[in-house]
Amino acid sequence: GNSINVVFNYRIAMIRVLIQTVYMLLLCFVVSGSEVIAQSAADQMGTASEDLENARRQRAELLAPKHFESAQREYDRYLSMVREGKSEQDLELVLSRFRQSVNAAIDDVLQAHTMLGSLLELRDEAISINAAAIAPKEYRDADDRFSKAVAKLEQDRLAEAEGLADEARVFYRAAVITS
User: Fold this and answer.
1) pTM > 0.90: yes or no
2) Residues 131, 134, 136, 141, CA torsion sign
């Protein structure tokens, strides 16, 4: 009878060790899994921040204001949701909308540089010589048409954008000459 009790107690002890081992492995998996999720969120946040800063350096606020504003709004929403501890699925949805907006902004910037390149240079020249103070009406008219041209570009209304860009070019030239 004693040998049966010893075998039985040994088996019980082995089962306890096995359960504790499985528990520790599961605990390690959960902890490392949450570290991976936290690292993944940090990596994604860093990438999103770099993408937004890249768009800003390319003057997306000026050349793609609608899409840049949308990207900024989604980025801010993403940061808020990370702080609130929202689910990874919710974060991915917001991050996806952010990527769409920032990519659209970059596309718009490239298109603006293609279509409005010389106008941008003329605008920068007018700014550098303080044309807004010296020839305020011409500069204001030019900037108004420039903004409308950019808006038309964002709407893919290229012919209208080109016409407004031509008008802006005339006013910027007048502002530069007057200055």
Assistant:
1) no
2) negative
